[in-house]
Write a structure and sequence with these properties.
2 domains; 10 helices; Creatine Amidinohydrolase, Chain A, domain 1; 20 strands; 366 residues; four-stranded mixed β-sheet; alpha+beta; six-stranded mixed β-sheet; Creatine Amidinohydrolase
Length: 366
């Protein structure tokens, strides 16, 4: 899709003009992919404010780059950053903006070895561009989410007493691969019983017991795009406190989703969910932000959390994932990936993560 990537580079050029930079050196690999289409473990991109962009990668990816990026000048080298910095100097591009948040001091010093270059931080310009997705990106993200939900539906009926957290995590990841995922978007979280009080618990060999609440946080990666979904189920008849806790978290999630419209203040979206949990006396048991952006990375801008600046925008995908975690007892988290939309009904988001066996509207009892 050379046209799409060219349009993205044009948007970056507008940032360069505002920053009075001659060129940008893009070294964050996911940003290189976003701006070129090339997925590589060793690549960099030189985007001049006025002139043709140059992609550098090594011989392992040269043929792929020629196929995926036919509109780009290609340099084949192992030392991608210093080669492009030297090329910038030879072409008279003196003011070079670089991704300071990604670069080490040692690498920055190597770029500065060419005394003719004036290096200046680019900021997170590419990440900011990535926040609002085009419809092609949203279609890929929707497919990743569909695979995730389908995998959960396939595996949930197999959950039984004695199965371990690790075994369930492997089953879900295998199902996602079988259904078309490139790989899991992240290491699947399965937290059962008292382990459910740990938001990012690493699955263990603990076997499920009757009465356990089991939290499953999983996602598929499809053509580079990451899904994120969490469901909490109970094995056997739930106790009253489990039903009440689930109902609270679900109500908080619905409040957060309802607040996630175009131009909504990010802090207000978080507060819509967090206030319900606080009023129920569980403020100290909701220990993380309400959600985050998703795309070519599992955690992207915007971060939806208390006191975060900024507003949501049309075509921004985010997660909404409130949780309440009770030490020694367990916890509940419900998470969905959605896309902020506009139109009719006003501000209604597109829900991308759906499951038939656990819609989130009722506690799934296994």
């Amino acid at each position: 899709m050379p046209g799409i990537h060219a349009a993205r580079r044009d948007r970056l050029r507008a940032v360069l003009a505002a920053a009075d930079a001659d060129a940008a050196l893009i070294t964050t690999l996911v940003n290189v992919r976003y701006l070129t289409g090339l997925a590589s473990s060793n690549a960099a991109l030189l985007v001049a404010a006025d002139g043709s962009p140059v992609l550098a990668t090594d011989s392992r990816y040269a043929l792929t780059a020629q196929r995926e990026c036919p509109d780009l000048e290609l340099v084949t080298t192992r030392t991608v950053e210093t080669e492009l910095a030297g090329l910038a100097g030879r072409r008279g591009l003196r003011r070079l903006a670089f991704e300071a948040h990604e670069m080490t001091v040692e690498r920055r010093d190597a770029l500065a070895a060419d005394g003719d270059l004036a290096l200046q931080p680019l900021g997170r310009a590419a990440e900011d561009l990535r926040m609002i997705k085009d419809e092609g990106e949203l279609a890929l993200l929707a497919q990743a989410c569909a695979i995730t939900g389908h995998a959960f539906d396939v595996v949930a009926p197999q959950i039984r007493t004695g199965m371990t957290e690790r075994e369930l995590a492997v089953l879900i990841e295998r199902a996602m691969i079988d259904l078309g995922a490139e790989k899991p978007a992240f290491d699947t979280i399965v937290a059962s019983g008292p382990n459910g009080a740990i938001p990012h618990h690493t699955p263990t060999d603990r076997g499920f017991e009757p009465g356990d609440m089991i939290t499953v946080d999983c996602g598929a990666r499809y053509r580079g795009y990451h899904a994120d979904m969490t469901r909490t189920v109970v094995l056997g008849a739930p106790a009253a406190w489990q039903r009440d806790l689930y109902a609270l978290v679900f109500a908080a999630q619905q409040a957060g989703i309802g607040a996630a419209g175009p131009d909504a203040a990010i802090a207000d979206v978080d507060a819509a969910a967090r206030d319900l949990i606080r009023e129920a006396g569980h403020e100290e048991h909701f220990t993380h932000g309400l959600g985050h952006g998703v795309g070519l990375e599992i955690h992207e801008a915007p971060m939806v959390a208390p006191a975060r600046p900024g507003r949501l925008a049309y075509r921004v995908p985010i997660t909404v994932e409130p949780g309440v975690y009770l030490p020694g007892r367990g916890g509940v988290r419900i998470e969905d990936t959605l896309v902020v939309r506009s139109g009719a009904p006003a501000a209604a988001p597109d829900m991308l993560t759906t499951t038939t066996s656990a819609t989130g509207r009722e506690l799934l009892v296994l």
